[in-house]
Amino acid sequence: MNELAKQDPQVAQLMKLEANRQKQGLELIPSENYVSPSVLQAMGSILTNKYSEGYPLKRYYGGNEFIDKIELLAIKRAKKLFNVEHVNVQPYSGSPANLALTMAVCQPGDTVMGLNLIDGGHLTHGWKVSATGIFFNSVPYHVLSNGRVDFNEVKLLAKKHKPKLIWTGATAYVYQYEFDRFAKIADSVGAYLVADIAHIAGLVATGNHQNPVPYVHLITTTTHKTLRGPRGAMIMVTKKGLEKDAELPSKVDSAVFPGLQGGPHDHTTAAIAVALAEAAKPQFRRYGTQIVKNAHSLATALMNQGFKLVGNTTENHLMLVDLTPFFGPGGGYFAQYALDQAGITLNKNTIPKEPSSPYFPSGIRLGTPALTTRGMKQKEMIRVAGWINEVLTEINHYRLPSDKKDRKTYLAEFRSEVNQNRKIKRIKMEIKQFSRAFPIFAW
Ligand SMILES: Cc1ncc(COP(=O)(O)O)c(C=O)c1O
C-alpha cells in the first residue's frame, strides 16, 4: 500500500476513502461482505501475472505447473464443501457463469424459465435485456403477493412451454428456496434444473438452508456473497446431473472455455481456494447460523417499529421492506439516498406486484452477512433498526412525482435537503462511533 501511495497517490487516496467508508458505515447490502486478510492477499498477488487458458494439465500456455495445483485444490475443496461431482472455478463472475451454464445445456432459441427480475429474480435467469433473454426464449414465472413463488404458475408454464432449463434461486427472495418442489416440476417435463445459490452459498455450506444437491442437476454460485470469498463464481454438477447427462461436466467446461471466456483469473482462483477452506471451518458454521439469527432479529425489530416486511418474515439472510405505507409508490429511492447519507448502505428494490418501476421501486432490500462478519449480534441489529426508523421518519413527507418531467428538480431538492439535514448528520456521527467497536480488515 505504501508503494501505491508513492507511485499513484491519486488512486491510493481514493482507495483510502473507500476503506474509511467501509469501516465507518453499516453495510446492509445482502450481496456484499468483507473478505479475510488471507483472501485479500491471494487476490492482490503475483498470480495476476499469469495466463492459463485451458484447464489443469491441458493448458495452451507454458509455466502452469503451480497454477494447475492451485486450480485443482480449489476444485477439490469445492467438491468436498458442497458434495458435488464436478466443479468449474473459472467463471469470471456470477453473470458469465449463468450465461455459460445456459450455453452448456441449451441451443440458441431454446426455452428457459426463471423468476422474473421484478419479482426478485436475477437478470441472467432470462430477463429480456440480458444475453440469457436475447439469445434464448425466456418464459418468466412470478411470485404471489406474499412474495412466494407461484408454483401453480410454474407448473402450468412448464407443461405448456416444455423448457430445456429451469432456474431456481433469486436475488431478492426472503424465503427458503424450495428446490424439492421445483424438482418435481422439472423432472415431469424433462428439464434441466439449476439452482443459482449466489446469495445463499454460505448458508448452504453451513447447513442453514435446504441443500439443493439432491434435487438439481446443476448449481451456479458467486463466491463473494455469503460465501465470503473474492469476486468470482463456480458451476457445479451434481450426482443427479451426471445421471441425467454424463456429458454435463464437459459441456459446462467447454461452455466456460472456450465458449465464453479466455484465460482464467488465477489470483481469483487462489482466493476462492482460500475462502473454501475458511468456509469448511467450525467458525464459519457459527457465522452462517449467526447471519440467520441476525436477519431474524433485524426483521423483528423493523416490524416492531411499524415497518411492513414482504411476507412479514425472513427465512434466510435478507429481507424486503415494502415502503408504500411510508412514501406511496416509488419511495425506495428516497430511503436508499437518505440512509446512505447517514452511513447505512442498502439498496432500493422492487416489491411483489411492484406499483412503480425498477429504477424507482417501492421497497428496500437489506441483509446481515456483512454486519455479521464484523461480529455484530442480535442486540446490535435492534440498534440498526432504530437508526433506519429515525432516518426514514425524518424524510417520510417526500413523494415521487407521478409526472416524469417533474422528477429531476424534485429529486435534486430532496437530495440537497437531506444533505443538510442535522438529524441525519447526527446519526452518521453516531454510526461512525458505533462502528469502531466492530473493526474490519483493510489495508
Ligand atoms: C442470484 C444471483 N445470480 C447471479 C448474480 C450475478 O453475479 P455477478 O454480479 O457476479 O455477475 C447475482 C448478483 O447479484 C445474483 O444475485
Description:
Helix content is 47%, strand content 12%. By secondary structure, the protein is of the alpha/beta class. It has two domains: 42-279, Type I PLP-dependent aspartate aminotransferase-like (Major domain) (Aspartate Aminotransferase, domain 2); 284-435, Aspartate Aminotransferase, domain 1 (Alpha-Beta Complex). The longest helix is centred in the middle third of the chain and has 23 residues, at 282-304. The mean pLDDT is 97.
Keyword list:
443 residues; alpha/beta; Aspartate Aminotransferase, domain 2; Aspartate Aminotransferase, domain 1; seven-stranded mixed beta sheet; four-stranded antiparallel beta sheet; 19 helices; binds pyridoxal-5'-phosphate
Mean pLDDT: 97
Terminal CA distance: 7 Å
Write down the Rg.
Answer: 22 Å
Bound molecules: pyridoxal-5'-phosphate
Structural class: alpha/beta
CATH class call of the largest domain: Alpha Beta
Spans of at least 5 consecutive residues with low confidence: none
Number of domains: 2
- Strand content range: 5-15%
